[in-house]
């Protein structure tokens, strides 16, 4: 027994904590896909909180653990845990018409994470100025829209304008509101990222 | 054997444990009593190196915890207050197997331990049940099984009755009594002593981060007066 | 909802890695050949795959209904032109075929979802991806599966509490940020408690891997997956 135990390589304490947060946020993203939606005035599509959680992953987990978190979300959905929009799952969703958005999420998380935390230890996002956060979240949204639309256009053989009409226009109001909400969460300063 | 030698610990500047010395013998059923905030949780988390003393040291079976975390964590199985948040798998069997898997044991040995641990908490044959379909009492018992599967000599529980109704509470207590009778040491932190006092060999009372009293359950009733803990009606 | 269901079908007996290979091969060739002839063959393959996993077509269509709406709108959108001839049938047909192949890809992946328990996928991941990334992904998806219903419950509670406190009259941004903030706070509280439990149970980089093995059935299926993948290049 003693010899077996000697070979056990424990995950160190800080990594366990960050990993647990990454996994639970991935689950939160999945929960938001089913439970989170909030109807908004003057829009046919209710707001799903999904993209908000993508922002929060970058803001509160940083580039490294944020990527782990979104990677867990995508893998969980691919192997059949119902975490994609409206409780769907399967590799088909990653390849299907909305796959581009999903593949863009890790890029968005890395972008936000790097801009707010750099490559070192986690900082408090509340210390980043509001215009910088707004610009970074907007850039992340543009990455998501860009890849999402490009893939949708390719896989459904649509022109750029048609793809935008189908996949971007209806969602713009909600997604902008989510950026404002994310900034409000950060500036409230009540969540400790470390 | 778990040994505290002059252990002190502070969160930032707030002192939480002050010069605590204690020895918990193998096979003993000990109660750690004290009001909320008296330092019970902080003390327990030193037993398996979740917290490290600012001064003094903690030894498990004669070895300082910090020298061999794996040995300490295998010898001291720990069950936390919120069972819902300590499961790592969605099904009972996979969850209980987590500890022994980390120890790198052979699959046959893991299966044997999972069966034995579930048997010990009256959950035999429930491997494939989903954890979120279990009652609160069943979840508590599966959490205990998860600790038992590490084959510990001590089982340490922090307020395991929070949120449990009477029957569930009794079902957990009855299992602890059985484990204790089979030789597993039990150290139970609680601020509600009503029906556990009769099971215990020893009561350790805490006040403001210090051991205020330490003795047999009979003596304890006197000592516990004024410690804001719930004691049996007389 | 489309999820794993215990059953005895051919697909249930296959190794998740073979089923993964079939999906990738299928998707590759479907993306490469959106032609009527290829799609006819692939439709036949889809029917076989669905039968092999006993997938209910009706329930799958209901599960993917939102995706299907987009797939149905796409060809219409592609066909409509401003000015004569108002509707371009060639464009609509191209887009229609493209949409149809996406439908087939979705259906084939539904067969994996219905026939593969999370436990098996986790084993496949830990056995296929070496070292720390494989371990993080494997344990991580087990945790996602475990915590998904817990956090769904949290979000429901938060929304109900908000509605009860006249939250419906709040501004939209206020509501989104409140749900986001409370959801994140609770999630982190749970994660921090979970991390204690992981540490207490010796969470390690090199555990005993979950059992998984190819059976004789898997080899022809893997060969078929390879054919599908190669056909993407012709
Ligand atoms: N993470 C923490 N940061 C700062 N203070 C803490 C922390 N955890 C506990 N404390 C303080 O330490 C004291 C003892 O807490 P604890 O060990 O949880 O007591 P008990 O378990 O007996 O209720 C309390 O005063 C509590 O406020
Ligand atoms: Mg406590």
How many extended strands of chain C? 0
What's the helical proportion of residues of chain C?
Answer: over 70%
Q: Tell me the series of helices and strands of chain A, N- to C-terminal.
A: HHHHHHHH
Rounded to the nearest angstrom, the distance between the terminal CA atoms of chain A is: 37 Å
Family (chain A): Belongs to the BioY family.
Organism (chain A): Natrinema thermotolerans
InterPro entries (chain A): BioY (IPR003784)
Pfam families (chain A): BioY
Question: How would you describe the overall organization of this protein?
Answer:
The complex is a heterotrimer of chains A (194), B (234) and C (234). Chain A has a single domain, classed as Arp2/3 complex 21 kDa subunit ARPC3, CATH 1.10.1760. Chain A has 8 helices and no strands. In chain A, helix 5 runs antiparallel to helix 6, helix 6 crosses helix 7 and helix 6 runs antiparallel to helix 8. The longest helix of chain A is centred in the first third of the chain and has 29 residues. The N terminus of chain A is likely disordered. Chain B is α/β, with parallel strands linked by helices and 234 residues long. In chain B, strand 7, helix 6 and strand 8 form a beta-alpha-beta unit. The longest helix of chain B has 16 residues. The mean pLDDT of chain B is 92. Chain C is mainly α. The structure holds adenosine-5'-diphosphate and magnesium ion (MG). Chain A: It comes from Natrinema thermotolerans. Chain A: Keywords: Cell membrane, Membrane, Transmembrane, Transmembrane helix, Transport. Chain A: It is found in: Cell membrane. Chain A: It is a multi-pass membrane protein.
Q: Summed up, what is this model?
A:
Chain A: It comes from Natrinema thermotolerans. The complex is a heterotrimer of chains A (about 190), B (about 230) and C (about 230). Chain A is mainly alpha-helical.
